């Protein structure tokens, strides 16, 4: 007795055998020129693109400056000084105690956190996009549930193209992303959530965060020295 | 949506044209959608070349579809998920129901899925005691209004802001009746609040998949709202309902298509959230187990007649990446909107796909409801030759005598003469004399027997009186070729 | 085929006019205007007697067999000419873009269809790209131009009519807001779906009126009759002509839909 799978594959194989495109090779990749930049030009492109997507961007010189930048951002927007941190060292090991008015906790979000602070896998300048992924140290709920998402991007995490972003993930996973090596989710995040479903009027703050703030650190991620 | 009404297209389109709220809603296509897409396309220097690559990539995939689907399935398994092959809609519905029952589901949150619409999953789940909750704002609005989507990207395109307000007031009866919903932002905030708890309550999250990645066994969703992500992260089971032609070889290949999809669909450089999901939550990892995510991951892989078109002239329709640009640019869609097409896929792609999946006799008007202007083809990111495929369905209808007999006879008569030049000359000489005489001194007809379709809305210009060929011959001008 | 240089017409370059059935039946003056323009450019024009229709009505209605038969008749009638010129983007497009596909499976006719397609031009396209004609006409008028879908998308005609119109004395071109929107003619479409067709042509006439033009021009008689018919029904005073009439200085005939 044949299963649906058998029948579907049989029909597909028969179709492929007579298809005009069975000998069509996979085309060579075409990566747009736009993101193929370095240094200051790369940072400028990221900022321009992210801002065009309604994210806000701040630049700090060192990892040590991040807690101040976060506190300043929340205060300037009149937002509650409560943040849920990713357990990842790139964010969790920063000196949050230097900002005593900030209430911090870390771990996944249950939906009651007004703001999250997370690291990223990469910041992709071509469209001002953040690549983030799920994991024990980077819970996915932090990227989607809080009203405000603050993302910290270190200088060596800033890349030009999406392909560079995947390369960064392959490097982290040890080359191959097959056979279960992918994180459960990898998300490309460009600006805060929005919808144009009400009379085609574009509105921010649908189900994901209403605000996306990106802090670019002009230092590599290895420069994070755990606070005591 | 289980009861297509595509054969009623003519009557439905006349109603649509006379509907002022619909016409107001549709005007955004010409005012916003078309300029937005053009701007985004112009902003990427390689856009046209990417369209060529995307077409070639999709052609390659379709020519190797079995291979990529098998690789995809193996990879889903390797990351702890399961693939369910479903040849038809009924099998897919039953599969989803069985999985929901395994999860003990009482409510199910849903991201937008056209395949879900195609198999009528919402009604089916409700009939079986499970409540589906739409989370995409457009889908939520039409769920409240008990309507089907009218556009594949913006399901509530046909609903004006005022109508959204009426709908929310009618259904969100627990809220203060005196609240102001004048501002669109207030409507959005209300929807967001209403939805929040439902995400946490749901036992199962159902999404679609814009793409399937063979390399890693991932499903990809593309949203602006983040609803798809909450739908597939919070409940204990994630079911992705999708179709066979969505598979793409590698992660990098997906980006070629993703550079075209949002630009073509909404004029955005990239949609806000593009998420690649692979398997259930990880029990172990470099830093420990995942603290969030579903415990079970299932892919329901639907055929529903698509595989039969591989290796046929209609194969090209399977390149579609569901961007909606064709309907955004279609002058017929601008006039009538999506519901007139009578099924889940409207506009130009719908006019090809509906006959393909339902049988041309169940969608007879659709391939004919086009002037073959070609604007759709000119904007399709994967260069589907839509007019050519519409013509294919017209040939199918003609050869099966589905075309109405009056039309066949009229055109048959014309063709009979056109194949016989001397008789053609004779017939046309007399036809124009009669018409000229009928028009008198007027220069036009306000009504004309047998041409009611024309003269209902327009005058019909009268001929000048003598054919060109007769005048040419009369002037003794050079006649070429054999008569 | 390389375009002939101005002032030097190889005596053996023959141009055949594809009249089109609409021009033949309804407005032969367009055919004569086309002839005048091509001759003005120094070419001799012949009109093969065996031509009837390009076969579009059959082709677009799914009657492939009749379309193929008509195509073979057309190809045979027009063989041996260096250029085939049609005052119509849709008929030109049928020969140029569709005949090869229509007869692709016929080993005898496929190459003949290809050969014909390669030599087929829309009138303004021919006048600009091949003939490089100098226009000598006057038409003091504010005109607007409707780009027919086939001209735009099958024959790559957009700039050519405008280039030619700019040479006409007194012409002011006021572009439509949406030049590339279909007028709703579409052959049998306009009688099969009259209400949709009407919706489309109403948008077009509103656009025309908004442009402030007193004359609407285009290169396709189907579009022109459709738009003229609507303008007349609306009581508009905008006059409708084929662009060939203006370019050839032959505007003493009544405009489309008007009494003599």
Can you describe what's shown?
The complex is a heterotrimer of chains A (228), B (483) and C (260). Chain A is built from 6 helices and 12 strands. Chain A is an alpha/beta fold and 228 residues long. In chain A, strands 1-12-7-4-2-3 form a 6-stranded parallel β-sheet, sandwiched between helices. A 4-stranded mixed β-sheet of chain A has the order 8-5-6-9. Chain A has a two-stranded antiparallel sheet with strand order 10-11. The longest helix of chain A has 14 residues. Chain A starts with a helix and ends in an 11-residue tail after the last strand. The relative contact order of chain A is 0.19. The mean pLDDT of chain A is 94. By secondary structure, chain B is α/β, with parallel strands linked by helices. Chain B folds into 3 domains: 233 residues, 3-Layer(aba) Sandwich (Rossmann fold), CATH 3.40.50.10420; 85 residues, no CATH class; 55 residues, no CATH class. Helix content of chain B is 48%, strand content 11%. In chain B, strands 1-10-7-4-2-3 form a 6-stranded parallel β-sheet, with helices on both faces. A 4-stranded mixed β-sheet of chain B has the order 8-5-6-9. In chain B, a hairpin with a 4-residue loop joins β5 and β6. In chain B, α2 crosses α12. The N and C termini of chain B lie far apart (57 Å). The model of chain B has no long low-confidence stretch (mean pLDDT 93). With 260 residues, chain C is α/β, with parallel strands linked by helices. In chain C, the strands form 2 sheets. A 4-stranded parallel β-sheet of chain C has the order 2-1-3-4, sandwiched between helices. In chain C, α5 runs antiparallel to α6. Chain C is globular, with a radius of gyration of 18 Å. The model of chain C has no long low-confidence stretch (mean pLDDT 94). At the A-B interface, α1, α5, α6, β9 and β10 of A face α2, α3, α4, α8 and α10 of B. β13 of chain B pairs parallel with β2 of chain C.
């Amino acid at each position: 007795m044949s299963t649906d799978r058998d029948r579907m594959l049989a029909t597909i194989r028969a179709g492929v055998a007579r298809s005009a495109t069975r000998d069509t090779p996979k085309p060579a990749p075409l990566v747009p020129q736009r993101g193929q930049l370095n240094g200051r030009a790369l940072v400028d492109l990221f900022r321009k693109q992210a801002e065009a997507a309604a994210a806000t961007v701040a630049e700090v010189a060192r990892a040590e400056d991040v807690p101040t930048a976060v506190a300043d951002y929340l205060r300037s927007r009149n937002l509650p000084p409560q943040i849920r941190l990713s357990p990842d060292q790139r964010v969790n090991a920063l000196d949050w105690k230097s900002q005593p008015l900030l209430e911090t906790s870390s771990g996944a979000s249950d939906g009651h956190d007004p703001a999250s602070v997370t690291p990223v896998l990469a910041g992709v300048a071509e469209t001002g996009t953040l690549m983030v992924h799920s994991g024990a140290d980077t819970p996915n709920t932090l990227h989607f549930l809080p009203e405000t998402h603050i993302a910290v991007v270190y200088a060596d995490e800033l890349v030009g193209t999406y392909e560079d972003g995947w390369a960064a993930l392959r490097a982290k996973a040890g080359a191959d992303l097959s056979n279960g090596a992918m994180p459960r989710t990898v998300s490309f995040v460009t600006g805060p959530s929005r919808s144009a479903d009400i009379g085609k009027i574009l509105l921010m703050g649908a189900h994901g965060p209403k605000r996306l703030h990106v802090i670019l650190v002009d230092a590599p991620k290895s420069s994070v020295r755990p606070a005591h | 949506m289980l009861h297509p009404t595509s054969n009623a297209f003519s009557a439905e389109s006349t109603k649509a044209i006379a509907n002022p709220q619909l016409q107001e809603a549709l005007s955004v296509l010409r005012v916003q959608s078309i300029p937005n897409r053009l701007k985004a396309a112009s902003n990427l220097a390689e856009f046209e070349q990417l369209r060529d690559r995307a077409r070639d990539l999709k052609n390659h995939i379709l020519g190797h579809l079995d291979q990529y689907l098998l690789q995809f399935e193996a990879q889903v398994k390797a990351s702890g998920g399961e693939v369910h092959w479903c040849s038809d809609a009924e099998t897919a519905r039953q599969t989803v129901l069985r999985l929901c029952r395994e999860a003990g589901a009482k409510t199910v949150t849903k991201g937008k899925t056209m395949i879900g619409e195609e198999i009528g999953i919402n009604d089916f789940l409700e009939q079986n005691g499970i409540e589906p909750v739409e989370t995409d704002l457009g889908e939520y609005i039409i769920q409240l209004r008990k309507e089907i989507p009218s556009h594949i990207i913006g399901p509530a395109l046909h609903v004006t802001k005022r109508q959204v307000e009426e709908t929310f007031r009618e259904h969100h009866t627990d809220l203060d009746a005196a609240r102001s919903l004048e501002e669109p932002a207030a409507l959005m905030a209300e929807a967001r609040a209403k939805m929040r708890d439902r995400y946490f309550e749901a036992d199962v999250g159902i999404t679609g998949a814009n793409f399937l990645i063979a390399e890693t066994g991932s499903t990809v969703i593309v949203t602006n709202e983040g609803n798809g992500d909450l739908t597939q992260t919070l409940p204990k089971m994630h079911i992705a309902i999708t179709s066979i032609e969505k598979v793409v070889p590698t992660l990098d290949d997906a980006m070629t298509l993703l550079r075209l999809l949002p630009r073509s669909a909404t004029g955005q450089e990239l949609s806000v959230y593009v998420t690649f999901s692979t398997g259930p939550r990880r029990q172990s990892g470099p830093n420990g187990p995942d603290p969030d995510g579903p415990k079970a991951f299932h892919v329901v892989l639907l055929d529903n007649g698509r595989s039969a078109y591989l290796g046929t002239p209609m194969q090209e329709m399977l390149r579609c990446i569901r961007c909606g640009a064709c309907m955004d640019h279609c002058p017929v869609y601008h006039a009538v909107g999506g519901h007139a097409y009578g099924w889940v896929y409207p506009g130009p792609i719908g006019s090809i796909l509906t006959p393909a999946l339902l049988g041309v006799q169940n969608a007879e008007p659709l391939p004919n409801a086009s002037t073959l202007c070609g604007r759709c083809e000119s904007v399709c990111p994967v260069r589907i030759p839509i007019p050519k495929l519409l013509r294919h369905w017209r040939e199918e209808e003609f050869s099966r005598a589905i075309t109405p007999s009056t039309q066949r006879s009229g055109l048959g008569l014309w063709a009979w003469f056109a194949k016989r030049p001397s008789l053609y000359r004779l017939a046309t000489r007399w036809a124009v004399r009669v018409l000229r005489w009928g028009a008198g001194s007027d220069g036009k007809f306000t009504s004309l027997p047998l041409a009611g379709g024309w003269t209902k809305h327009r005058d019909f210009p009268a001929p000048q009186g003598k054919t060109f060929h007769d005048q040419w011959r009369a002037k003794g001008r050079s006649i070429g070729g054999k008569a | 085929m390389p375009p002939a240089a101005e002032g030097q017409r190889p005596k053996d370059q023959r141009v055949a006019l594809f009249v089109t059935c609409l021009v033949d039946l309804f407005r032969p003056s367009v055919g004569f205007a086309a002839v005048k323009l091509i001759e003005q450019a120094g070419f001799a024009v012949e009109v093969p007697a065996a031509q009837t229709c390009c076969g579009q009505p059959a082709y677009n209605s799914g009657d492939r067999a009749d379309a193929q038969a008509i195509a073979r008749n057309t190809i045979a009638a027009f063989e041996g000419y260096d250029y085939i010129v049609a005052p119509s983007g849709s008929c030109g497009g049928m020969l140029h873009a569709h005949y090869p596909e229509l007869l692709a499976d016929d080993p005898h006719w496929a190459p003949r269809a290809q050969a014909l397609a390669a030599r087929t031009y829309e009138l303004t396209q021919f006048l600009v790209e091949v003939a490089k004609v100098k226009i000598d006409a006057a038409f003091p008028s504010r005109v607007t131009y409707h780009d027919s879908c086939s001209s735009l998308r099958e024959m790559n005609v957009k700039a050519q009519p405008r280039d030619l119109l700019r040479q006409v004395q007194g012409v002011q071109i006021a572009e439509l807001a949406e030049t590339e929107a279909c007028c709703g003619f579409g052959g049998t479409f306009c009688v099969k779906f009259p209400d949709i067709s009407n919706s489309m042509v109403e948008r077009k006439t509103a656009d025309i009126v908004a442009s402030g033009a007193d004359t609407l021009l285009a290169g396709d008689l189907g579009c022109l009759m459709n738009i003229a018919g609507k303008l007349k029904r609306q009581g508009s005073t905008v006059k409708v002509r084929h662009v060939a009439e203006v370019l050839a200085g032959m505007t003493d005939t009544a405009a489309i839909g008007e009494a003599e």
